[in-house]
Amino acid sequence: MSTLAEDLIDHLERPLGRGHTPDDAFTGAAGGAACGDLIRVSIALDPHSREGRIRDAGFDASGCGATVAAGSAIVSLVRGAALLDAARIGAEDIARELGGLSAAKRHAAELAADALHRALGAGARERAALARQDGRTLVAMSGGVDSAVAALLVARGGAQAVGVTLELWSDPENDGDLSCCSAQAVRGERELAHELGMPHLSIDLRAEFRAGVVDGWLADHALGLTPNPCVRCNGSVRLDAMLELARRLGSDTLATGHYARIAKDPPALQAPALDAAAPGPSAPGFPGPLLRTAAEERKDQSYVLCALAPESLARLRFPLGDMRKQHVRELAEHAGLAVASRRDSQDLCFLAGTRHGDFLARHAGLGRRAGPIVDADGGVLGAHHGAHSYTVGQRHGLGVSASEPLYVLATDTRANTVTVGPRRALIAGAVSVGEATLHRDGRCVDGVRVRAHGRRHACRLADGPRAGRHARLLVELQAPAERTAPGQIACLYAGDVVVGYGTIA
Fold first, then answer.
1. Which residues fall within 8 angstroms of residue 21, CB to CB, at 6 or more apart?
2. Do the Cβ atoms of 137 and 162 come closer than 8 Å?
3. Cα(227)–Cα(505) distance, rounded to whole angstroms?
4. What is the C-alpha to C-alpha distance for residues 51 and 83, in angstroms, rounded to an integer?
5. Which of 389, 469, 464, 475 is nearest to 431 (CA)?
């Protein structure tokens, strides 16, 4: 039996695949200036293999000898392996291939695993075409207890669960440990998936996330709007990418840890005593499954998922939709999951420990810019530090003394003014919604939610719009309510089913 030194020395003196980059390779890198070690791992997939077999691999590394040995170990482990088998390889497997590593050298195995999985993720996303397998389910793992328990339930249900974590944002000013989409989070989720006996892939979506979510969020702030980036991310970036990955991995379904349900065969949602209008030529995905609120109303996430198309919902599974949060934590504790007591994230994932104003200044040049706080008649009441930093309905942080509490009524980023007034000035009987989508006839709409965790307001849509896309809808409230900020999302319900959405104008 070889000793630790013999295995390590063998990979050091005769490193397998060092300096070799296969043709048509996908490459992942890890390390760099912070630690002084850098490793690049390259893999090439057999285009004719229905298992995504790795036909060749190579690496290059600089830094300590353990990093070179870890790269060689990777090549030894993955050459000829099926894609999902390679996706089970972690730092422990690399260390074992080297006969074991001391705590001081463990870092080399972790870097090698990071590089390997970045290469595997790129290859899976662009080249994989695995044979379809009944019961195979891709599970989104985002760092919290909810996604961990979703993965646990899928695996316990007899399905072949495959974990995936997205790397969405990288910013040295952020706290990576607080972010659900950082490189640190990816490593943690990979280790958790492996503990559950699951292969795990990580997908680098940083460019798509920046272009499809963050850039729009920054641009909307510059216009004085208050956007909801989570709706945009779920509706057109994050879940779409994972559904496409699931298809490439031979899976029909994607499971997530969201608190929501799916109405697979919803009733013919229509206004009382009226036949539902036939869908127009622009009707999006009509008919089809619709989103339904979670059993635990206070945890419901249907609002942030409202932009999902019916064809996407047909392939989605929400294992926690009928569960209470307390039960989810109990399941995690009984399974010994380290995330059982982790607090729920409150920040936007790309803020993660960064102040809102600091982020806007760094990424959009929206720094401090003094301007007046005025009343409805234009009288100056005080000063602010930038109209883009305020939102309609805001009360705190105004720094203005008055005989009654004052709220932000409007912002004008061009004139750099913030208009304030009493709360009664925010009350409105209708909401104008632009860029709207209806999956069912608008006469069935009886509720609207204008904040992610706000209450649903009873309402109807003016003029009975048909299913389809609409430039503008008027939501008439049954009882007047406080206006919300332009740019937010209005989620439209029929009972507990989401039938449409749009942007508050």
1. 27, 42, 58, 60
2. yes
3. 11
4. 6
5. 475
339-345's contacts with Cβ under 8 Å and 24+ in sequence apart are 339/143, 339/144, 339/145, 339/148, 339/192, 340/145, 341/145, 342/143, 342/144, 342/145, 344/144, 344/145, 345/143, 345/144, 345/178, 345/180
Give the pair of three-digit tokens for residue 3. Answer: 């000793």
136-259+294-341 to CATH, choices 3.40.50.620, 1.10.600.10, 2.40.440.10, 1.20.1260.10: 3.40.50.620
Residue 349 falls in the annotated catalytic set = yes
- Whole-structure pTM value: 0.89
Q: Among 349, 444, 459, 491, which one carries the catalytic annotation?
A: 349
Enumerate residues 6+ apart whose C-beta is below 8 A from 283. 439, 466, 467, 468
Note whether 276 and 268 are within 8 A (CB): yes
Which residue among 233, 306, 444, 491 is the active-site one?
233
pLDDT, averaged per 10 consecutive residues of the chain (505 residues), comes to: 66 92 96 81 96 97 93 97 98 93 89 96 96 94 92 90 90 57 78 93 93 94 91 92 97 96 73 41 60 95 96 96 96 92 77 82 90 96 94 92 94 96 96 96 96 93 95 97 93 96 96
The token pair at 20 is 């070799």
**Containing H/E element for 473?**
strand 468-482
Alpha-carbon torsion, ordered 74, 79, 80, 84, to 10 deg: 30
Please identify which residue in the block is written with the tokens 């750099």.
416
**3-state class (DSSP) for residue 372:** strand
Cβ contact 190:151 at 8 Å: no
E-strand spans in 181-278?
200-204, 253-255, 261-263
The answer for residues whose C-beta is within 8 angstroms of residue 362's C-beta and 6 or more apart is 173
Q: Is 233 a catalytic residue?
A: yes
pLDDT, position 445: 97
Could you say which of 3.40.50.1390, 3.40.50.970, 3.30.450.20, 2.30.30.280 is the CATH number of the domain covering 369-422?
2.30.30.280
